[in-house]
Amino acid sequence: MPEPKKVHQGRNIRRFREMLNLKQEAIAWELGEDWNQQKVSLLEQKEAIDDAILRQVSQILKIPVEAIKNFDEENAVNVIANTFNSSDFKGNSAVFNIKPVFDPKGYPNS
């Protein structure tokens, strides 16, 4: 039986931070005066992170600690690939229920 793949917590923090469009400096500022951009960069390189720091970072990112501890990009890609099929993205308005309506009276300055 294959050994379970280790989750790289620092890399997951970086991925979530980037998805939220936050800079390392912003995370450092939220973590306190002992932190700076370089220290956050080093944190993102660590495979395992202390639970207390994980809790702080999860609060800053507004995501559960479990998301950082358990996120596996390969599994996420597999879930997405197996959940959607290509026809879902070919303008099928039933999937997205997109029906644009233009009403010039609804806009200011018209």
Describe the structure concisely.
The protein is mainly alpha-helical and 110 residues long.
Provide structural commentary:
It contains seven helices and no strands. Helix content is 53%, strand content 0%. The protein is an all-alpha fold. It has helices spanning 9-19, 24-31, 37-43, 51-61, 65-70, 73-83, 93-96. 10% of the residues are buried. It has a single domain, classed as 434 Repressor (Amino-terminal Domain) (Orthogonal Bundle), CATH 1.10.260. The longest helix is centred in the first third of the chain and has 11 residues, at 9-19.
Number of domains: 1
CATH class: Mainly Alpha
Mean pLDDT: 78
Q: How would a textbook summarize the main sheet?
A: none
SSE string: HHHHHHH
Helix segment tally: 7
CATH architecture: Orthogonal Bundle
CATH topology: 434 Repressor (Amino-terminal Domain)
Distance between the termini: 67 Å
The parts where pLDDT drops under 50 for at least 5 residues are 92-98
Rg, rounded, reads 20 Å
- Please provide the count of β strands: 0
User: Shape from CA axes?
Assistant: globular
Percentage beta strand: under 5%
Secondary structure elements and their pairing?
Blueprint: H1 9-19, H2 24-31, H3 37-43, H4 51-61, H5 65-70, H6 73-83, H7 93-96
Helix pairs in contact: 2-3
Primary descriptors:
single chain; globular; 7 helices; mainly alpha; 0% strand; 434 Repressor (Amino-terminal Domain); 110 residues
